[in-house]
């Protein structure tokens, strides 16, 4: 008969301080940020005694919620008690609640973001102050009240908790629900995002919508309108009541004669985003950007798109930074804009907040539920994200969720597949923050770099780019204190068109 040890043994990896907050920390040998007034940050990782490495994962020898060959499992009450004992000793945790794929932890004083793990035994750690309300994302979607629905067996077999279904399966689900606008698979269930309607009409529609899918293990819920609600561009000045008020608006071309992924990019009218990576297609070399940063200019001056004298891109502040080039193309009708750099402008595909270079673009088929990723942005620094689902738009006429002029509707993005990712940070050390910090809209355009595979461990050195940040917030409109969900447009079509990471410094 096997016995359970009376204590847990943390796996010890590189003992480096993690950076899960917007405070900027730096991996060794990364290109240094300039020490300007706008970037008063901790400049290097310092050795600490926490038994989790710089990806923020606290793992144990005795158990994990993710077991290879079995997927997500609940290890049993005996381990939950031991886990509480360990977390109480190390982080002064008062209680632990399982709500897969999360562990909800309550404390009298929440540990500083740089001193706590992002995941614990494979689950995203949600840190709450004692008495604080539960995040709404623990259960997204309202229940239907009509009889259960039966779907084709091929569909139900592909719908399983904690496993990403195929694009074909989700597209088939969109056709079942006539009023569906999007379908999101999120951890353990489907959320049918309905065409927006009045609250009264929505409540009436719930009475006609099925409560469950027969012979299927995933839940079924509904949402009035799309989950993605945040406007996808920002003016350059951040709101200090949301997160610390300092941003890195350094003009690296002036300071270092080159710039990097995540650096601040401005359009002529002051909208700002983060630099992506340098890519190439044959002889063409381009810098990726979030095209919606130039939406206003495109709406008023579409005829000049591709002209070197229009759609200018500036590194740093629009008024004081260095002009780097212009948006020459937009990939199909996606949000990927492609900047042609001026002669003499140098870009290096090395990230500033973690030690890797962009080396390859990867398709959605190579991504698994619970893979972890990093982004680097001038408004957040290093941030950790975990893949928890996918989202697809119904094949139907599009709404205007991009700004276009009359007669330009053909330029709207086509129906596409998206990855939903969650950011596990619930609080920061900034005392003015009264609710969970949002990933600022300025992260749009940031490259999503895979740092840990669900089963394969650390893979940051591979420099695999899974997409570029698009929506900065994906959450129910009614939640003001929600955990973070983000959307990133995947690169399947971009790769199929022949684009790859440019491995030559330009």
Tally of helical runs? 7
- Order of strands across the main sheet: 11-13-12-16-17-18-15-14-27
Structural class: alpha+beta
Which percent band covers the strand fraction?
Answer: 25-35%
End-to-end separation in angstroms reads: 63 Å
Give a brief description:
With 506 residues, the protein is α+β, with helices and mostly antiparallel strands.
Would you mind describing this structure in some detail?
With 506 residues, the chain is an alpha+beta fold. The chain has seven helices and 27 strands. The chain is 11% helix and 28% strand. It has helices at 77-91, 153-158, 167-176, 199-206, 252-256, 295-301, 492-496; strands spanning 57-58, 66-67, 71-72, 93-99, 102-107, 119-120, 123-129, 180-186, 189-194, 219-224, 234-235, 264-266, 271-274, 278-281, 284-290, 312-315, 322-330, 336-341, 360-361, 372-377, 381-393, 417-423, 447-453, 457-458, 464-471, 484-490, 500-501. The longest helix has 15 residues, at 77-91. It has a nine-stranded antiparallel β-sheet. It has a six-stranded antiparallel β-barrel with strand order 20-21-22-26-25-23.
Blueprint of the fold:
Layout: E1 57-58, E2 66-67, E3 71-72, H1 77-91, E4 93-99, E5 102-107, E6 119-120, E7 123-129, H2 153-158, H3 167-176, E8 180-186, E9 189-194, H4 199-206, E10 219-224, E11 234-235, H5 252-256, E12 264-266, E13 271-274, E14 278-281, E15 284-290, H6 295-301, E16 312-315, E17 322-330, E18 336-341, E19 360-361, E20 372-377, E21 381-393, E22 417-423, E23 447-453, E24 457-458, E25 464-471, E26 484-490, H7 492-496, E27 500-501
């Amino acid at each position: 008969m096997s016995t359970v040890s009376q204590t847990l043994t943390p796996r010890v990896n590189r003992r480096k301080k993690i950076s899960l907050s917007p405070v900027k920390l730096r991996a060794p040998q990364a290109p240094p940020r300039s020490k300007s007034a706008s970037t008063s940050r901790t400049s290097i990782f310092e050795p600490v005694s926490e038994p989790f490495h710089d990806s923020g994962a606290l793992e144990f020898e005795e158990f994990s919620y993710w077991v290879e060959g079995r997927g997500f499992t609940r290890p049993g009450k005996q381990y939950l008690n031991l886990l509480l004992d360990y977390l109480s000793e190390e982080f002064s945790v008062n209680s632990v609640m399982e709500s897969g794929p999360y562990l909800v932890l309550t404390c009298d004083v929440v540990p500083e973001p740089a001193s706590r793990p992002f995941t614990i035994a494979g689950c995203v750690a949600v840190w709450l102050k004692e008495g604080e309300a539960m995040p709404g994302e623990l259960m997204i979607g309202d229940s239907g009240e009509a009889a259960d629905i039966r779907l084709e067996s091929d569909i139900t077999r592909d719908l399983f908790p904690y496993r990403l279904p195929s694009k074909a399966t989700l597209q088939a689900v969109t056709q079942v629900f006539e009023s569906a606008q999007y379908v999101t698979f999120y951890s353990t269930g489907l959320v049918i995002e309905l065409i927006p309607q009045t609250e009264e009409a929505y409540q009436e529609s719930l009475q006609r919508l099925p409560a469950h899918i027969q012979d299927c293990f995933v839940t079924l819920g509904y949402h009035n309108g799309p989950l993605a609600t945040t406007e996808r561009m920002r003016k350059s000045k951040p709101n200090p009541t949301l997160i610390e008020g300092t941003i890195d608006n350094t003009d690296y071309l002036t300071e270092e004669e080159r710039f990097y992924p995540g650096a601040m990019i401005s359009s002529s009218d002051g909208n700002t985003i983060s630099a992506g990576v340098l890519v190439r297609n044959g002889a063409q070399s381009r810098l990726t950007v979030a095209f919606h940063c130039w939406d206003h200019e495109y709406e008023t001056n579409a005829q000049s798109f591709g002209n070197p004298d229009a759609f200018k891109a500036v590194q740093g502040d629009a008024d004081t930074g260095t002009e780097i080039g212009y948006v020459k193309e937009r990939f199909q009708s996606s949000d990927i804009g492609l900047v042609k750099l001026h002669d003499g402008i140098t870009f290096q595909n090395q990230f500033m907040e973690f030690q890797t270079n962009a080396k390859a673009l990867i398709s959605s088929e190579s991504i698994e539920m619970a893979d972890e990723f990093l982004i680097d942005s001038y408004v957040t620094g290093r941030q950790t994200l975990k893949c928890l689902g996918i989202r697809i738009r119904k094949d139907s006429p599009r709404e205007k969720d991009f700004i276009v002029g009359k007669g330009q509707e053909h330029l709207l993005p086509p129906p596409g597949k998206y990855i939903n990712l969650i950011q596990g940070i619930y609080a920061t050390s900034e005392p003015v923050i009264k609710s969970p910090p949002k990933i600022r809209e300025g992260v749009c355009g940031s490259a999503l770099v895979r740092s840990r595979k669900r089963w394969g461990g650390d893979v940051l050195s591979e420099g695999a780019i899974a997409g570029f940040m698009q929506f900065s917030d994906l959450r129910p409109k009614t939640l003001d204190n929600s955990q973070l969900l983000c959307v990133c447009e995947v690169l399947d079509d971009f790769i199929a068109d022949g684009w790859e990471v440019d491995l030559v410094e330009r």
